[in-house]
Amino acid sequence: MNWNRKDLLGLRELSADEINFVLETADAFKQVGTREIKKVPALRGKTLINFFVEPSTRTRTSFELAAFRLSADVINISASTSSLTKGETLKDTARNLEALHADILVLRHGSAGAPQFLAQRLKSSVINAGDGAHEHPTQGLLDIYTIREKRGKIAGLHIVIVGDILFSRVARSNIFGLTKLGARVTLVGPSTLVPREFEKLGVAVSHKIDNVLPEADVVNLLRIQHERQRKEYFPGIGEYTTLFGLTKERAKLLKPECLVMHPGPINRGVEIDSEVADGLQSVILDQVTNGLAVRMAVLYLCGGIST
Amino acid sequence: MSATIIRNGRIVDPANNRDESGDLLIVDGKIVDVSQLSTISSELDEIDGSNLVVCPGLIDIHVHLREPGFGHKETIASGARAAAAGGFSTIVCMPNTSPAADNPATIAWIKDRATETACVNVLPTGAISKNIAGEELASIGSLGRAGVVAITDDGHCVQNHELMRRAVEYARMVDLPVLDHCQDYNLVGNGVVHEGYWSTLLGLPGWPAAGEEAIVMRNILLAGLCDHHIHCQHISAAGSVRLIREARNRGVKISGEVCPHHIALTDEAIQNFDTNYKMNPPLRSKEDVNAILEGIADGTLSILCSDHAPHAGFEKEVEFDQAPFGIVGLETELGLFIDLLVHKHRKVDIKRLIGMYTVEPAKLLKLNAGTLSIGAPADVTLIDPDLEWTVRVDQFQSESRNSPFDQWKLKGRAVRTIVNGKTVWKL
Questions:
Q1: How many CB atoms lie within 10 A of CB B351?
Q2: Which of A91, A131, A197 comes nearest B197 by C-beta?
Q3: Of A89, A133, A135, the CB nearest to B318
Q4: Out of A272, B35, B344, B350, which residue is the most buried by the measure of CB atoms under 10 Å away?
Q5: Catalytic-labelled residue, pool B60, B184, B288, B307
Q6: How far apart are the first and last CA of chain A?
Q7: In B, which residues are within 8 Å of A113 by CB distance?
Q8: Cα B304–B309–B310 angle (5° rounding)?
Q9: In a structure prediction context, what are the per-residue pLDDT tens digits for chain B, which is 427 residues long?
């Protein structure tokens, strides 16, 4: 197929064919990562700007490394070093970056829709590296890639996503991508963080993790964002772990072939016990490795369109 | 002496239950019995009213004129021009200016400015609380003496029910109606769009309908307790309509108004993160739209208005959750309401629609306006209810362009606006 998108804004707008095409492209780049010389000239002479208005280590580093391996020139701008702190609008900041002939803008932003906003206004490629509680498409793609790699397929699998779904962009990108590829998705968490409204997105909602775990082919645990002081959403970390944590005991409910995933950073002893995070079923570090290949694929495909 | 006659129009004057073909005579800025025509000595201006509805000058009881403080969004002069172009001879402006209209000096400034620069009647409201902060009562009695037609904290909402109770009791003493923007801050939190399918899909903070309904309920209770009128502004939720209907049936002094965007659009419109679809209260679901249409049809919601909220382009062209709420409406509201209520959904006839823009707001605010009675000020709007036209934001009289209705094709609009006997705008 032909890829004709200059931007990657979310998985909701992609077709199943497009998602599969990114995954197949990532296969090729994953293979590059095993060579002695891990660099290809695909984006030589192109400039990529990592524009991270919200803090991130893992995603920013992954994009940076992906760009290096494609031979692009990379600049990192964070919220504190950008002119946004001086009152400049997002539009003006981005247009200035474009005036410096940036070819690809990777944007992490706290506001849902910020990448759409820029993509409509810039000729550069805009890659969404997470926007508010909306989407985190490369995380969704790397999760799907990892499942496909380990289980050989997506269609027909039962994927269980546990945690703070309401505020999670990772959950939304996973939901959109996985359902398009024919997976069955169940969301699990406190009723305040997993409202019933999600059923309208074509997924199941459950508040009883012990009933769901035995039928799961994949369990994807999301971090409880306790630093945001969401006291009104659940009574406390202890109760969360009691009701929803993937403890050692609970992990015994899992089928032996069930994958345990987590987008990181993990809070050991909160949403997942240490032993489970480091256990045989865990593919958490594979996700990180695959993220590099998936991001290379995305930059390669979108960066090829922006010229 | 100046005299004008509008000939062969369909005269629709709900205040006098009048709907008939005829001529309307205006002498020295007043409506005069047409039988006096033979006594007119001066030259007579003639306006052809054939195929047009001739009705009392329309009143919009909910506009933001932004002066003092935010003249880059709108001035009293430009807002008044926009009103005239929309068919409005009288507009009621909200107090959330800078400084807030919470004191007699600011009211005097607004009135002076309107006298100097506005081509339509501009009637100010005063704040309920000092600086619209919801903590202490504004000097409501002095605001009344300065000439406000109502009190409201619009854009904000007094959260303390006890303070609101005292405001309503006090307003009753000085005979000022209370208008309220119904929003429970705890329930709404940082919500920016209707809480439902689209907020869930897009990950935007939700503004639940219950956040409006809870305050509508509060206002019904306080209107009963204080035996004084509370008017609920820009009703958006089905539950609010149900609550108001039930209370009005019991005789409670409560009423509600509707903005065109709350029946023209649903929350589905937000999916591209276009901030011209961001308003407060937000666009809601199809069920809410249907409930509002029924509320208009059965008289539960009795007043139409715009919530005209101008913002500069650079202010709206930002991330969705950071953009200010509101859209301009004065130049599109009549066309939208005629198109949707009269033509498309057939919920009311043109006479009732005009009533909701004239006699109803005049009754609420006790205005000497909204009627073609003999001796009344000659504020008159001429409407072609069947005229097909296309909205062009680049032709707005308003200083601002923040409208989601650009390029909409509508049927029905005002073709001439007359204030005190003088034509201030014509198509």
A1: 17
A2: A197
A3: A89
A4: A272
A5: B307
A6: 19
A7: 202, 204, 273, 319-321
A8: 140
A9: 899 999 999 999 999 999 999 999 999 999 999 998 888 888 899 999 999 999 999 999 999 999 999 999 999 999 999 999 999 999 999 999 999 999 999 999 999 999 999 999 999 999 999 999 999 999 999 999 999 999 999 999 999 999 999 999 999 999 999 999 999 999 999 999 999 999 999 999 999 999 999 999 999 999 999 999 999 999 999 999 999 999 999 999 999 999 999 999 999 999 999 999 999 999 999 999 999 999 999 999 999 999 999 999 999 999 999 999 999 999 999 999 999 999 999 999 999 999 999 999 999 999 999 999 999 999 999 999 999 999 999 999 999 999 999 999 999 999 999 999 999 999 9
Task: With beta carbons less than 8 A apart as the criterion, state whether B56 and B369 touch.
Answer: yes
- Residue in B with minimal Cα distance to A193: B200
Name the residue type at position A204: A
**Peptide bond between residue B99 and the one before it cis (omega within 30 degrees of 0):** yes
Question: Above 0.90 for ipTM, yes or no?
Answer: yes
Q: Taking CB atoms and an 8 Å cutoff, what residues of chain A touch B204? A: 112-113, 132-134
Looking at residue B247, the DSSP 8-state letter turns out to be H
Cβ atoms of residues B307 and B259 within 8 Å: yes
Using a CB-CB distance cutoff of 8 angstroms, which residues of chain A are in contact with residue B318?
89-91, 117
Whether B307 sits among the annotated catalytic residues: the reply is yes
Contact (Cβ atoms closer than 8 angstroms) between residue B381 and residue B418: yes
Tell which of B186, B199, B202, B318 to mutate to test the A interface (max A CBs under 10 Å): B202
Query: Per the structure block, which two tokens stand in for B190?
Result: 């940082």
- Judge contact between A221 and A182, C-beta under 8 A: no
Show the tokens assigned to A306.
């922006």
